[in-house]
Amino acid sequence: MKQPSLKNDLLLRTIRGEKTERTPVWLMRQAGRILPEYRAVRAKLSGFVELVKNPERAAEVTIQPVDILGVDAAIIFSDILVIPEAMGLPYDMVESRGPVFPRTVSSQADIDRLKVADISDDLAYTPEAIKIVKKGLDGRVPLIGFAGAPWTIFAYMVEGSGSKTFSKARAMLYRQPTLSRQLLGMITESTIRYLKAQIADGADVVQIFDSWAGILPPVHFEQFSLPYIQQICEAITEVPITVFAKGAYANLTEIGQLNCATVGIDWNTEISHARSVISPDKTLQGNLDPAALYADFDQIRQDTRQMLDAFGSHHHIANLGHGVYPDISPDHVRCFIDTVKEYSANKRSKLL
Amino acid sequence: MKQPSLKNDLLLRTIRGEKTERTPVWLMRQAGRILPEYRAVRAKLSGFVELVKNPERAAEVTIQPVDILGVDAAIIFSDILVIPEAMGLPYDMVESRGPVFPRTVSSQADIDRLKVADISDDLAYTPEAIKIVKKGLDGRVPLIGFAGAPWTIFAYMVEGSGSKTFSKARAMLYRQPTLSRQLLGMITESTIRYLKAQIADGADVVQIFDSWAGILPPVHFEQFSLPYIQQICEAITEVPITVFAKGAYANLTEIGQLNCATVGIDWNTEISHARSVISPDKTLQGNLDPAALYADFDQIRQDTRQMLDAFGSHHHIANLGHGVYPDISPDHVRCFIDTVKEYSANKRSKLL
Prior knowledge:
The first copy, chain A, has 352 residues and is an alpha/beta fold. Chain A has a single domain (10-351), classed as Alpha-Beta Barrel (TIM Barrel). Chain A has helices at 10-15, 36-43, 48-52, 55-68, 82-87, 108-112, 119-122, 125-137, 150-159, 167-175, 177-200, 218-235, 252-256, 271-277, 297-311, 330-351; strands at residues 74-75, 92-94, 98-100, 143-148, 205-210, 241-245, 262-264, 283-288, 316-320. In chain A, helix 12 (218-235) links the parallel strand 5 and strand 6 (241-245). The radius of gyration of chain A is 19 Å and the shape is globular. The model of chain A has no long low-confidence stretch (mean pLDDT 96). At the A-B interface, helix 10 of A face helix 10 of B.
């Protein structure tokens, strides 16, 4: 589909490694959670999953932070667990408990009942929302598409809910490695199709979230997470990819060698360490502590400036080190965004 | 108090860096959870907290794994949250939810209502249990005492329960750093008194558990966790100390410089990395993935041998990388323990 050219393409130029006039900024979970305008839309629908599946409303909340907060990118409002649902394993989002799967996967028979997702049949609502967003944005900022990493999706499908230990999912890796690989393969294939559909309808960048990478021992991350992320990175050639593997500190070197343009960094990782183990031609994204936005404005400005100094002037997309927490005030988010814009622009102009 | 000399002092000799005939082994959470014999004792009492406060019964479940599993150390059955309780902030252990504090700390007034724990008044039950354990063990193996690290205790006192993000506790570090330090100081002083009481009644080693170290950005770990652990390490001169800071991968170098004899390593940390950043005169403890015990016996043996090879023959106490999971079969735990004993003894005899 022909797209209008971007008025603000700072994110894309930064990903390509160009020297830019300032550092681009957006926030994980910027669509949803923190904005009263989001909660107003959400209140009209019966639940979170219903909002995800409603392209008009999903598009509306995707665009809100661009208007209200002034971020340099939109990220499509969706959920990583649409993939299991499209594979035949539906879920509910239960208030104060998180996602719950009535059925889970523990045997070959369970896997035989699943299928590789057919996007146009089972998951058309996200690409559809993307079309509407692109029209609404009209080239103001780029749109980020996303999916969960296969290991993280696997973890929910086997565990059946969030968990402190994901011990059922990790037990399956030890007890049934072949079965585990079969399921991971099906998730990977579904994810590639899903990301390609998002790109076909207008996603300018895609991000892979390995939210539960950090629960694996390094050797399991190498065996059961990294190869499937790598398959995705190799299959997606149309747009730049960002890989964010939360908690995978011990594997940052290998992550830095993936065929991706950008590596997301969590707030537990020292910026200097990330820069030292990841190839300098990659862009880094992150990594202010999400809890830092609880501080007063002066402190937020100070911490944000310190982060910008540590990343340096190029190959950096400012973000938090994880999704913004639901009870953070939009004013504090705006302070973070404005500080990134002003401080990085000032620094560049002095360097010129 | 005069103690009988130890028949099995492998743990203590290993901590001192002596060359020993084999690698000592014990498991975090070995007392409780996994043994049917534990559940039988627990069923006679109304709750977890009641068991913690009952010296006779706490002693009984402390000794069980020595008899039943053949570990090289006992660890006193207790809970890290006895410290807040003794400081004036009681809690309940709620089935399937974990600890819940009816009152929490969020202001100076809340702190003013607390006190530094008076062990003989408020926390006599643990030292009392230690006396009974020492009598029961009669020198068979050493006894490990323990306490939570000040940051982890702080996190529960402010948050009021377990949490995926501990965002209230982390918000306090940003918003009220001075108040935070005051509370951390009171926890530290209480903890030093508590550990000294445990040692006076017979603990041969003490371990500090910083279970929530990994949720802090490295700079906050350095400011709000490490200095208080260091105060404890400096105050406890009677017996060797083990520091286990789960998830503090980015700060492992600083942890290795603490005035402690042993550093605990979680399962997300590569053994070679830990050896390379921690001084070779320290003993390392860990770090098999707790989920590895879900595997079959052959796989457990293989993973355990691989871990022993990676740590090398000395300065190593075999353990899991976190507490044993509640649904692990005792047979699988025994397979781990027996493999450590046999394989490490065989390796040493070949080296001689």
